[in-house]
Design a protein that fits this description.
The chain is of the alpha/beta class and about 180 residues long. It has two domains: about 1-40; about 45-175, Glutaredoxin, CATH 3.40.30. The protein has helices spanning about 1-10, 15-40, 60-65, 80-95, 110-115, 130-135, 165-175; strands at about 50, 55-60, 70-75, 100-105, 125-130, 145-150, 155-160. Strands 2-1-5-4-3-6-7 form a seven-stranded mixed beta sheet. The longest helix has 26 residues, at about 15-40.
């Protein structure tokens, strides 16, 4: 396999090799910078958000002094759609933890249509039209879920779809607050 890759690399023109190397370098730096952003989360009170209803608020107000789970999702994202029922059930069950569902880049009509068609009854649905929360989270990947303790400090991030078991594992330390 490595030999085939090397032969393929050598078969490229010098210009294509340079462009490919530059693209790989940019992707590597995005990963490094994203990792650095993951280490430096802003306070919840600094994160202004817009509810599906159009009302403006901040994440601290939605947390209401409780631990907070912020799920970044989109209706076109298959892993997001798979995890939504798990998160919806947790929101109903875990009354000591606040849940926020931040849609990334879609308009209110699209989000409402998806929620209605999926029969998801969610509180705290946000519209993040400019995907600001995704940038703050340090990832362009969906879904991504951020976990904050009751004092508003970021404690964990989960990239990819959450299963019931992986969500339970992430929620366990939050219940201690």
């Amino acid at each position: 396999m490595p030999g085939a890759i090397l032969r393929g690399w050598r078969g490229l023109s010098a210009r294509k090799r340079t462009l490919l190397a530059l693209a790989l370098w940019v992707l590597a730096w995005q990963g490094v910078l994203g990792g650095l952003r993951l280490m430096d989360k802003p306070a919840l009170s600094e994160m202004q958000v817009t509810l599906l209803s159009g009302e403006s608020t901040n994440l601290a107000a939605l947390a209401d002094g409780k631990p907070l789970v912020v799920n970044l999702w989109a209706s076109w994202c298959p892993p997001c759609r798979r995890e939504m029922p798990v998160l919806a059930a947790a929101q109903q069950r875990e009354t000591g933890i606040s849940f926020v569902f931040a849609n990334q880049g879609e308009n209110a009509a699209t989000v409402q249509r998806y929620l209605s068609a999926s029969q998801l009854d969610l509180a705290n649905v946000l519209l993040d039209r400019d995907t600001t929360l995704g940038f703050v989270a340090g990832s362009g990947m969906l879904p991504i879920t951020l976990f904050y303790d009751a004092s508003g400090q970021w404690v964990a991030t989960h990239l990819g779809a959450l299963s019931a078991a992986s969500l339970a594992k992430k929620l366990k330390p939050l219940r201690a607050y």
